[in-house]
Design goal:
Structural class: mainly alpha
Shape: globular
Helix content: 55-70%
Radius of gyration: 25 Å
Distance between the termini: 61 Å
Number of helices: 21
Largest sheet: 6 strands, mixed
Strand content: 5-15%
Length: 540
């Protein structure tokens, strides 16, 4: 069964890589990480991340460095930016399998937990768009695996490796990286009645953790001491309790509301089983720990004012282990619920695919839609009515198969509808068609489009007027070279510079459809042609 599972992982890796570079970089998060990684790869400076030529110290450099490596291997393409996301997900699935195998000591639970995790919508969202969260979660799962290995086998090298990986997690997203691991260990000790204790390896391990996690921060602060206050006050304290500064504040109940939706449809049969068979189902310590850890992570992250969808991704590995344990042990008590849930899921998926070509605002080839719909119907028919496998195996096959179809449908839909995912690749392609020479500038008015230099190179100048998104932090710049690609229109002399640029016949202006030039500058568009896209207009 182990070899079969590894073949499944290989198959999933192939599915995840099909068309992974076929859609444009999405604004704003993915484009930002992709562009910082590109600039890092071009400069070979892996200590000082930069975005559009300006130092960007919001996050430690691990995600950017991984992305840069992708470019070095596969070229400066969307596929190069995203490749390691697929690899990270496969490694996560492998680690969840191994955790369940050594901890629950049951291969069925291990396989179920891994494949359930794969089918969570939030996991697919995280690995289809480049951010820190997929890599952070990989390090978190890896560190939990190593810690459990140390607890089970009592071999010190697992503990030291644990501290190294935890340090890399810190270098991916800072102090918040410690929380999920710490909460899991706390739940583990409470459930098992263990008191905190220190060994001869504790202090060396903590020193190793400090050296790894603090390495980048120390090297940066030595060169730029003023970054110390920036890291502590703005990037740690303000992000945690004053998220409105970054326009990311959400109410306390935000995660409580959306977290259940991000683990559908598995949530439905598991909850039904728990209620209907509550007198029969008995939780072992491992299952309790996973459930408590997921709840603790959800509650803790809900306390922070800064909330984005993928911030709670680290709770889902524990939820997958919890679901996997219940499913493998008790699915036979109410197997119909699981099968009916995935029957309904497949029907919804077919209806969705059939409806796509008829939605006026979308582009989706009806032949492709028909092929998808027919494939899903055949797949469902074979496994629901013709297969003689065990019900638990059928449910996992249905879940995994449906998720694979969803991945392929998303790939097709996003590659044909850039506006739907907030990608501006069509706009950039049009600009390059209109400007075949190298002597031109593209002015992005009052918006920060990190994807622009990815496609257009050093032709891009960002114009900051009033939009907070286009405001850049130049406090830590040693030279004025950033002014070549960034124009603050309210600074002295910058209005005239903007006018001079607009009077150049080779200049292109890219502006959001909901925005327009101030009345005092609108005359500058006289003589320009325009091409209106879904969200932006190109003046040339």
């Amino acid at each position: 069964m182990k070899k079969s599972f590894y073949l499944v992982l290989l198959f999933l890796f192939v599915i995840l890589n099909i068309g992974q570079g076929s859609w444009g970089l999405t604004e704003s998060s993915e484009a930002r990480y992709a562009e910082i990684g590109r600039e890092m790869a071009l400069s070979n400076d892996f200590l000082n991340p930069s975005l559009l030529g300006i130092g960007h110290y919001h996050k430690p450099p691990v995600t950017y460095a991984i992305t840069a490596l992708g470019y070095k291997i596969f070229g400066y393409t969307e596929y190069g930016a995203r490749f390691f996301l697929s690899l990270a997900l496969i490694f996560q699935l492998f680690l969840i399998y191994k955790i369940a195998l050594i901890w629950f000591k049951d291969e069925k639970t291990a396989i179920a937990s891994s494949l359930i995790y794969f089918s969570f919508p939030i996991v697919l969202i995280a690995t289809r768009n480049l951010t820190t969260d997929a890599y952070l979660t990989t390090f978190i799962i890896f560190s939990v695996y190593l810690w459990l290995q140390f607890k089970i086998k009592n071999k010190p090298y697992y503990l030291y490796f644990f501290y190294v990986i935890l340090g890399l997690a810190f270098l991916t997203k800072g102090p918040v990286s410690f929380l999920p691991v710490a909460l899991f260990i706390l739940c583990y000790k409470i459930v098992n009645g263990e008191k905190p204790k220190f060994s001869i390896h504790t202090l060396p391990g903590l020193i190793l953790l400090l050296l790894v996690s603090g390495s980048w921060f120390l090297s940066i602060i030595i060169n730029k001491p003023e970054l110390w206050d920036y890291f502590i006050q703005e990037q740690i304290i303000d992000r945690s309790v004053n998220a409105e500064t970054f326009h990311r504040d959400k109410p306390f109940w935000y995660y409580i509301l959306i977290a259940p939706a991000l683990c559908l449809p598995w949530l439905v049969p598991v909850v039904i089983n728990l209620f209907k068979k509550s007198k029969v189902i008995k939780f072992d310590k491992q299952t309790k720990i996973c459930g408590y850890a997921a709840i603790a992570i959800l509650a803790t992250f809900s306390l922070f004012s800064s909330k984005l969808l993928l911030y709670i991704l680290p709770l889902y590995p524990f939820l997958a282990l919890y679901f996997g344990s219940i499913f493998s042990k008790y699915s036979t008590l109410n197997k119909t619920v699981y099968i009916q849930t995935y029957k309904a899921a497949l029907i919804i998926l077919v209806l969705l695919v059939v409806a796509l070509p008829f939605i006026p605002t979308l582009n989706f080839n009806w032949l492709l839609a028909s092929a998808f719909a027919l494939s899903i119907i055949v797949f469902g028919y074979i496994f629901l009515f013709k297969s003689k496998g065990q019900p638990a195996q059928l449910v996992l096959l249905l879940s995994t198969g449906a998720t694979c179809f969803l991945v392929l449908i998303y790939t097709s839909l996003s590659s044909q509808n850039s506006f739907l995912i907030n990608a501006l690749k069509p706009e950039y392609t049009f600009i390059k068609q209109q400007r075949t020479t190298s002597d031109y500038k593209v002015l992005v008015y009052d918006n920060l489009l990190s994807s622009a230099p990815f496609y257009l190179g050093d032709h891009v100048i960002t114009i900051y007027d009033t939009n907070f998104e286009s405001k850049r932090d130049t406090r830590f710049e040693d030279t004025d070279s950033w002014k070549e690609s960034y124009l603050r229109i309210h600074d002295s002399g910058q209005v005239q510079r903007f006018k001079n640029l607009m009077q150049d016949s080779n200049t292109v202006l890219l502006i959001k459809n909901k925005k327009k030039l101030p009345d005092s500058l609108s005359y500058l568009l006289e003589g320009f042609k325009s091409e209106k896209f879904k969200k932006y207009t190109v003046y040339y």
